[in-house]
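Page 42, continued from yesterday. The earlier attempt failed because a stray header line got pasted into the input along with the sequence. Redoing it now with the clean sequence only.
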Amino acid sequence: MKSVVIQTLVIGALLGTAACGRRPQSREVNSLPKVAVSLVGQGATQGMGEGGAWVAATLQSTRTANLSTRMAAQVKRVLVQEGQRVGAGTLLISLGDEDLQGQLKAAQTGLATVEAHHRRIAALQAQKAATPSELEQAQAQVAQAQAGVAAIRANIAYTQIRAPFAGVVQSRKVNEGDFVGPGMPLLELVGDGEQELVATVSEEEAKGLKTGSKLVFESEGTEGEAQVTGLAPGGDPASHKGTLRAKVLKPKGLRQGSFARILVTGLKAAQGVSVPRSALVQRGELSGVFVAKDGRAELRWLSLGEGGGGYLPVRSGLKVGEQVIDRPGALQDGQPIEISSGVVHGK
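This time it went through. Structure tokens are written below.
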């Protein structure tokens, strides 16, 4: 019994010591040290054209098709590879049709039977040996059998996957021997010819734009011209941004899926805010800055536009006049700060 009591006291003392040892550490984590920081001025946005700002976009074809089948079957042959150019009507994938061929033969036999019966009834009716209603019934049986044969032939045609237009095989999603079902994607085809730019824009960036407007864009070091074909700003309820589509007028034959940037109006006049790259904080795909507010550093996530040089235009998340901290280093959200004298101003 004494041994048990002594062990309990020892364990209690150890737990108390551990607890006492953790308290100062907890206070140290919660109490961040004050650090000196320098601010950066918000200058005129760099990398802008006159009266506009660059917005990221993607170059893609105006004709894209994800080909599938309407029936369950096994992939018999795959006749194309990714990156291969094909003409309209080219056979791309052949599916097994043995069951359908058997059904077709049976349906054709049934059609031949009802056609022979119809001929006999027609001959009897000509001799007044059959009634008009018997002839009508025989005609209906022939029409029904013909429709059955046509339906099976249509299904057989669906086992031959052909290119709906000329283009390039972008991706192949099945191999020979795979079993596919209705609606399952088999192959993606990107059409040759017209290309378009697709970008996400806010209502402010879309000001002054309308269907038919012409825009300047850059892609892979090449400058071109595009015409707006679709504009739906504010369509996303979360970001309040929409989609801009612009048909490429020149040059032709740019690489599909390439990154591009479009020069749009509205951002410079509406916001006029830019931040230096040296002030940016990157967390995965998120970009932000630390803003000096009430003696503390406040982390602010931003939506940025495209720009050249050391400055990037701010699409949302920052207001004109807010104090941005330059070169934040290991600064943490909510950490106390002391602003150093002197502000680095943007050019």
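Notes: The CA atoms of residues 118 and 138 lie 5 Å apart.
Reminder to self: strip header lines before submitting.
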